[in-house]
Design goal:
This protein is of the alpha+beta class and about 170 residues long. Helices cover about 15% and strands about 20% of the residues. It has helices spanning about 1-25, 85-90, and strands at about 50-55, 60-65, 70-75, 100, 110-115, 120-125, 130, 150, 150-155. Strand 5 and strand 6 (about 120-125) form a beta hairpin. The radius of gyration is 18 Å and the shape is globular.
């Protein structure tokens, strides 16, 4: 009996490890870039939606349809992302299949799509490519605000598409 348990231990450990990783994968929304710790989906199945969400510290800021905060990266150029590789893992881009949709408080004419280096479509607002922060574990969090990572600072945006200072 002891040898049977010993033989099963590695298999059980592997199954638990796999289950733990699966349970930590975050959201399943492919337009959300599956933010909050997982890799963005390479091909979203629907257009992204950009909304506003009220946060006591900043007022109305841009978020996705589930209230997850969106950020701009000061190293980006107008409608051009400079966040790839490890940067895009920590700051997943808001991807879309087709034109993004404006939600509550968002101006449709400020929304656009840009092509990323790999050909994926990323949502922009007022010329700023939009990103999530993997450190925001729940909707409404703004843990990425004013962080200096990957060569520049990151900021939440207001409904006019301007960076919000802390």
């Amino acid at each position: 009996m002891t040898t049977a348990r010993t033989a099963m231990a590695p298999a059980c450990a592997a199954a638990l490890f796999t289950a733990a990783l699966t349970g930590c994968s975050g959201s399943t929304s492919d337009t959300a870039g599956e933010a909050y710790g997982s890799t963005p989906s390479a091909s979203p199945s629907k257009p992204a939606s950009v909304d506003t969400h009220s946060v006591a510290r900043f007022g109305a800021i841009l978020a996705d349809e589930k209230g997850r905060t969106l950020y701009l990266f000061l190293a980006d150029k107008r409608n051009k992302s400079n966040c790839t590789g490890d940067c895009a893992k920590a700051w997943p881009p808001l991807r879309s299949k087709g034109d993004a949709k404006a939600g509550k408080g968002v101006t449709q004419k400020l929304l656009a799509i840009t092509k990323r280096s790999g050909g994926d479509q990323q949502v922009t607002y007022n010329g700023h490519p939009l990103y999530y922060y993997a450190g925001d574990k729940k909707p409404g969090r703004t843990n990425g605000q004013a962080l200096d990572q990957f060569g520049a600072e990151w900021y939440v945006l207001d409904a006019k598409g301007k960076q919000v200072e802390s």
